[in-house]
Write a structure and sequence with these properties.
Number of strands of chain C: 8
Chains: A alpha/beta, B mainly beta, C mainly alpha
Distance between the termini of chain A: 44 Å
Radius of gyration of chain A: 22 Å
Structural class of chain A: alpha/beta
Shape of chain A: globular
Strand order of the largest sheet of chain A: 6-7-5-8-1-9-12-4-13
Largest sheet of chain C: 2 strands, antiparallel
Oligomer: heterotrimer
Structural class of chain C: mainly alpha
């Protein structure tokens, strides 16, 4: 049964459509109630790396192992660089980076279906106010702005297809959507045809722009602004085509991140972070291990481990971890119970995520599950708690900052949740 | 069904006699060569023993000391010893018939990580193990001394078997490559191509040769697994490839069910020439079947046992045991029974063949 | 001083007032204008579009392509005061009309799920003979076809009954789409409970509609054909908010539940299925046949149809979004919607007639430029023309027309097909997303910017745009260029801009290509304004 999504309960799609027009009015902090805060933030150049393991990595085969217990599975736990903290044996390289990381083992969220769950988590599961909230990436793009990278603020590296996903932005309006690079490749048609020189290109673009200005003189501005936005973005990207060419990097880097999609995509993500992109999301698919869960994790987690550890190492070495907030999570964890297909099903009741950087406390574990790993024994944290915490780490006070949706003030994080202080250094 | 198959069905049709109900899930079950015991390796690090010679099976004290899952067990033909491996890399030897058996010897780091399989040579001298560390190793059954190390798979090695001649051992890996090793030189003699049992799906290497077995004469090598189509919620058609041992060519390809039926987890050759096998796929699906190589369909097929993970054959050739899974083993989210979060278990179904 | 626009509105008001007291009602087009102006509340309406703006719009809406430069010139030169009405008639009876309608209805009904030659043939022949909409709806909804002519109709169902990757056929999605497309109601959220915000949408409505499809299956995607198994069990449902079990048989929202006759097992079929011939058979009682019979009888049916046809012409529904007809989302012009629905039924669901009436209205013929001194665009007022989305197909035909490559390309069906797939890839929405408003995309911009296929159309070939321009003196280029691409004459500024540009550049052909490209890439070209 496909359940409806909360944001589909909108009275009509009118508000959303209305704000599309509103959101295109220049890349500004226009619909934030506190523009001053935004200006301050802009200077700090905070960034986010958001790693999404789609389908749900098993907490028991990663961050919260329970070896030798009923639901613990076949794998062992190994010590880490922080005495007393153990993680699954399939994460040996990450274990050596533990002193930079913070684990949250007490997530308890509300949705056990993918279709609703992915968006629900990435939108911070806000209180239903009849509007579609932005994904975290769009929210950060809005709140922190594009920085000075000359690139769009919210970039997504993923297997499969790419394109500009305006849906992520919700009521913020399509320009805060996400630019996805399918298979980590630049979009099609990014290279100028041989017949057109750079000079010719600028000349024709100028002609185009002047036509649009004349056209818009007596018309609503939306169409021309929206067209200008995508043409500008095309130009921005074309100028940074070099970022996509991983062959220019040392062979050693490519080996360290791993010769697989995820490794390549993480290396590309590092390049975008170095280039100053505000929010970089990296997706890995295929974690919905309802069958053959353990072989899947023994096979996939080490590939994740390799790239993730290399990324942390590099961010530390470059001094970037102080300003880059790294988050790695899924839409939920997996059932302690092992089904007949030797798989684990969806489990939002007690699961884990890992984060690092940007002022997050280092080398800590927050929250605890019971001996069997079935339920949380400390305070349960919903995604709203994480949103409060992440915004706080990015220098945005979630209790004082609001969105302004055409006059409707909206909190940036669920008001019933709060910041997790143990995660803040 | 052809006449031959009808005769076979008449002669060997299994009939269920009893069900054992351990409270946890099992990876494997095997009968002892003396016929008195059935042993099962569990998700709970213990080896369960049942005395099945009695009118009503009696559960005996378990063998404890393993870690993780007890992945595979083999009995020594001397009818005294049992060898077991676990997912934490340990290899143990037990006097299995003792009331409270104490380990005869143990190798704590036989492999780095999950040991996938253990096999014993026909003469009882050697054990072969294989594992996640991509290695195949040969051990003395007498003292657990490592006698050989067969390296070269380059990926997770799932299954291992000795040829009845004792001259060579075969091992099958995640990517569908089966290697035949000469035990004198520890070199690869030949490779069998079972790569249809592997697929790279996104990040995941899916499939693998999950079980290897020879027919009693050693003329045919069987490789069991799935032909995977996708990872994560792994889907594939249960498959057994039967290779001609001499030529290395596929003689028969047996498939059962469809894409949701998953893996052939366990199988054996019957001296009468047919194959007995069990499968497990999507939760609730399981097949237990007998099929003659070359036939399009099994002459016996039971589909009422969910998720069968092991099939044990009694030394009398007339009794069988299938370890399956309780129904309703899956589901998302918090599902409590009497306020308790309960796990699954593996009912063990005992069968008697028609001609017995 | 009263501005012209306002005076114009008041004049209409008087017309509206007058006809109610006379016997013969004025044509629908005039009644449309009266009802729209009645709601203007003193706001100024935009003036009528000039001939060029009108011509481009009417061509795009009714022929799916911009006019050729010759047609544009002839129309602008024509001094006949009745030329707009004549042009509308010409377009409605022209060869491009059925193609344009097939393209529009295909995108609307299938939402880019895929295509099928038989389905295209069905749509094309239906619009070519101006088949009444109720008949088309019955042919599509009954799910089966016994004539060559309607063979493609079941594609609406068959495509939706295909498995999507590992997912099973999406029956709730099919239920939802039938409600959306044919009745204008999106029942998705009423699947599991009465709709939280929309009181009119009940779970029982969803489930009743769902019951029509519970026994439907994909028989042969190639035909396309679907089958129905005997209806044996009512749909049981429980609200996720409550515990009372309810059940329902097939029921069209707002109508009575259909009694399902009981046939003995084995006697349900009038014609038994024949697997060898891939014949799904015919049931004695077919819920889909009942659905096809009853949906057009629902009040919602005609209202949804006219709202969607209004959207086709005007760029926005009188009820908007198009699939949310309910009391909390009222029509912007309730009397107008009632009138259109009533007249549509009275004219036997004649699509061409209705489009013609709308096209002749002043409301349709207004400029997309805001009235002077007005900054705010009020979309639901219909006092200013919307900037409508140009679909991928319209854009392809128009780019070919503008570059003078239409006839050449048309000679090769394969050429059109491969070009169409490029345009669809660059400009269509992803599957299952309705195409409602102009939303320029990065991939579309990149396509226009750098794709070789676009550059190729600008290579001079005998008679094409760049070739023609290259043979004109600098001071004649702008007129030919603007009329060919933007269907209008250039302003004086634009004319001197073109001349200056040509004067600066040494490579004249290249300069002409850049000028032409800039027009093709402009917002003015990419929207239907």
């Amino acid at each position: 049964m496909k359940l409806c999504k909360p944001w589909e309960h909108n009275l009509s799609r009118r508000q959303w459509l209305g704000s599309v027009a509103a959101g295109l009015g220049g890349l500004s902090f226009g619909n934030l109630l506190q523009p001053a805060v935004a200006d301050q933030l802009k200077k700090k150049n905070k960034q986010v790396l958001f790693i999404w393991l789609d389908g749900g990595i098993s907490q028991l085969e990663s961050w919260d192992p329970k070896p030798g217990t009923q639901f613990g599975g076949p794998l062992r736990a190994i010590p880490t660089s922080v005495p007393g903290i153990h993680i699954s044996e399939v994460l040996p390289k990450t274990a050596r980076q533990m002193h930079h990381l913070a684990l949250v083992r007490s997530l308890c969220t509300k949705d056990n279906s993918h279709s609703a769950g992915v968006a629900r988590i990435q939108r911070g599961d806000p209180k239903n106010r009849g509007v579609t909230y932005p994904f975290f990436g769009s929210a950060v793009a809005k709140l922190l702005g594009p920085g000075d990278s000359g690139l769009p603020p919210y970039i997504w590296i993923k297997p499969g297809s790419g394109g500009f996903k305006h849906q992520d932005a919700g009521f913020l309006g399509p320009k805060y959507g996400c630019l996805a690079f399918g298979d980590g490749k630049p979009p099609e048609n990014l290279v100028l045809p041989n017949s057109i020189s750079e000079e010719d290109n600028q000349a024709r673009l100028l002609l185009r722009k002047k036509l649009d200005q004349r056209y818009a003189a007596r018309r609503p501005k939306r169409s021309v602004e929206a067209t200008g936005f995508v043409f500008d973005m095309a130009e921005q990207l074309r100028k940074r085509l070099d970022l996509f060419d991983l062959n220019k990097l040392p062979e050693k880097d490519r080996e360290r991140y791993g010769n697989h999609d995820f490794g390549r995509h993480m290396l590309l993500a590092r390049r975008f972070l170095e280039a100053g992109v505000t929010f970089v999301k990296v997706n890995s698919y295929g974690w919905d291990t309802h069958g053959d869960n353990f072989n899947a994790h023994m096979n996939m987690v080490p590939k994740f481990d390799q790239a993730f550890a290399a990324m942390i190492e590099d961010l530390v070495a470059r001094g970037m971890l102080d300003n880059v907030l790294v988050i790695c999570m899924s839409e939920f964890g997996r059932t302690p119970r092992i089904n007949g297909h030797v798989g684990r099903d969806h489990w939002p009741e007690a699961w884990s995520l890992v984060m690092a950087g940007c002022g997050a406390k280092r080398g800590v574990v927050v929250g605890k599950t019971n001996d069997k790993g079935t339920f949380v024994t400390t305070e349960e944290y919903d995604i709203g708690h994480m949103f409060h915490t992440w915004f706080t780490l990015l220098g945005i006070d979630p209790n004082k900052t609001e969105y302004d949706n055409d006059g409707q003030p909206l909190p940036i994080a669920h008001p019933d949740c709060h910041v997790v202080k143990e995660l803040i250094a | 069904m052809n006449a031959d198959a009808k005769t076979l069905a008449k002669q060997f049709q299994p009939k269920q006699t009893k069900v054992l109900k351990p409270d946890r899930q099992l990876v494997t079950i095997r009968f002892s060569p003396c016929g008195k015991y059935l042993a099962g390796g569990g998700f709970d690090s213990i080896i369960r023993r049942w005395d099945v010679a009695a009118t009503e099976p009696v559960e005996l004290p378990p063998l404890k000391g393993h870690g993780g899952w007890v992945q595979a067990i083999v009995f020594h033909p001397d009818k005294r010893r049992l060898f077991s491996v676990d997912s934490w890399g340990q290899l143990f030897a037990w006097p299995y018939a003792d009331k409270n058996p104490q380990r005869l010897w143990s190798v704590d780091k036989a492999h780095d990580g999950w040991i996938r399989d253990v096999a014993i040579s026909a003469d009882g001298k050697w054990l072969a193990t294989c594992g996640f560390d991509q290695m195949v190793r040969i051990w003395s059954t007498d003292n657990g001394k490592k006698l050989g190390e067969l390296a070269g798979h380059g990926c997770d090695v799932f299954s291992v078997a000795f040829h009845p001649s004792g001259q060579s051992v075969v091992s099958g890996d995640l990517k569908g490559v089966v290697k035949q090793w000469d035990l004198k030189t520890n070199k690869v003699v030949k490779e069998f191509d079972a790569r249809i049992m592997y697929k790279l799906s996104r990040l995941q290497d899916v499939g693998g040769v999950r079980r290897l077995a020879f027919d009693p004469l050693g003329a045919t090598l069987g490789c069991a697994g799935t032909q995977p189509t996708v990872g994560a919620n792994v889907q594939g058609t249960p498959t057994i490839l039967l290779f001609d041992w001499q030529t290395g060519k596929v003689k028969h390809k047996m498939t059962i069910g469809g894409n949701g039926d998953g893996f052939v987890f366990d199988f054996h050759f019957h001296p009468a020439g047919f194959v007995m096998a069990v499968t497990s796929g999507n939760p609730g699906t399981g097949k237990f079947f007998f099929q003659k190589p070359g036939d399009a369909k099994p002459f016996f097929l039971a589909t009422n046992l969910p998720n069968c993970h092991a099939l044990a054959v009694h030394p009398d050739g007339k009794h069988l045991a299938v370890s399956a899974t309780n129904p309703g083993s899956n589901g998302n989210g918090r599902q409590l029974k009497n306020n308790q979060y309960v796990g699954n278990f593996s009912p063990v179904h005992l069968f008697e063949m028609a001609g017995a | 001083m009263i501005r012209p626009a306002v005076r114009f509105g008041m004049a209409l008001f008087v017309v509206g007032f007058l006809w109610s007291s006379t016997r013969a009602a004025p044509p629908l087009s005039e009644r449309i204008d009266a009802l729209v102006m009645a709601k203007a509340n003193g706001r100024a309406a935009s003036p009528l579009a000039d001939d060029a703006e009108f011509l481009r719009r009417a061509y795009l809406d009714l022929a799916g392509v911009i006019p050729s430069v010759q047609e544009a010139r002839a129309f602008l030169d024509d001094t006949d005061p009745g030329k707009r009405a004549k042009m509308i008639d010409k377009l409605l009876s022209g060869p491009d009309y059925p193609r344009r309608m097939a393209e529009f209805f295909h995108v609307m009904l299938m939402e880019r799920r895929g295509d099928h030659a038989q389905w295209q043939e069905y749509l094309h022949s239906s619009f070519a003979q101006n088949k009444p909409w109720d008949q088309m709806a019955r042919e599509i909804l009954c799910g089966f076809s016994d004539s060559k002519e309607t063979r493609g109709a079941p594609f609406f169902y068959s495509k939706r009954l295909e498995r999507y990757g590992q997912n099973p056929a999406d029956y709730p999605g099919l239920t939802r789409d039938v409600g959306r497309m044919f009745l204008g109601i999106d029942l998705q959220c009423a699947q599991c409970h009465n709709h939280v915000h929309i009181k009119d949408y009940k779970q029982a409505d969803y489930q009743g509609l769902f019951a029509f499809f519970t026994n439907v299956y994909l028989n042969d995607p190639k035909m396309p054909s679907i089958g129905e198994r005997p209806f044996t069990k009512k749909v049981e449902f429980v609200s996720v908010f409550g515990f009372t079990k309810k059940q329902t048989g097939p029921r069209v929202p707002g109508m009575k539940e259909i009694e399902v006759p009981n046939y003995k097992q084995g006697e349900e079929y009038a014609r038994k299925p024949d697997n060898k011939k891939k014949d799904p058979g015919r049931l004695k009682f077919s819920p889909l046949s009942k659905l096809a019979e009853q949906v057009p009888q629902s009040d919602a049916f005609a209202r949804n149809a006219v709202n969607r046809l209004w959207f086709l012409m005007m760029g926005r529904g009188i009820v908007h979004p198009l699939d949310l007809h309910h009391s909390k989302n009222p029509p912007s012009h309730p009397e107008l919607l009632d009138l259109l629905a009533k007249e549509f039924v009275a004219h036997k669901y004649d699509i061409k007639w209705l489009l013609g009436e709308i096209a002749r209205s002043q409301t349709y013929q207004r400029s997309s430029m805001l009235p002077e001194n007005q900054k705010v665009f009020q979309p639901e007022s219909f006092l200013t023309a919307h900037e409508k989305l140009i679909g991928a197909e319209q854009l392809m035909w128009s780019v070919l027309q503008a570059t003078g490559e239409l006839e050449r390309t048309r000679q090769f069906a394969a050429g059109i097909d491969s070009l169409r797939s490029l345009f669809v890839k660059a400009f269509a929405n992803p599957p299952k997303e309705p195409e409602i408003e102009f939303n320029p995309s990065l991939k579309g911009a990149l396509f226009i910017l750098n794709n070789n296929a676009v550059q190729q159309l600008l290579v001079p070939r005998p008679g094409n745009l760049v070739d023609r321009l290259s043979k004109l003196p600098d001071d004649k280029v702008a007129e030919e260029l603007y009329l060919s691409v933007l269907t209008r004459l250039p302003t004086a500024d634009e004319k001197s801009e073109v001349e200056d540009y040509l004067a600066q550049k040494t490579d004249r052909v290249k300069a002409l290509q850049q000028l032409a490209w800039a027009l093709l890439a402009s917002t003015e070209f990419c929207v239907n304004h």
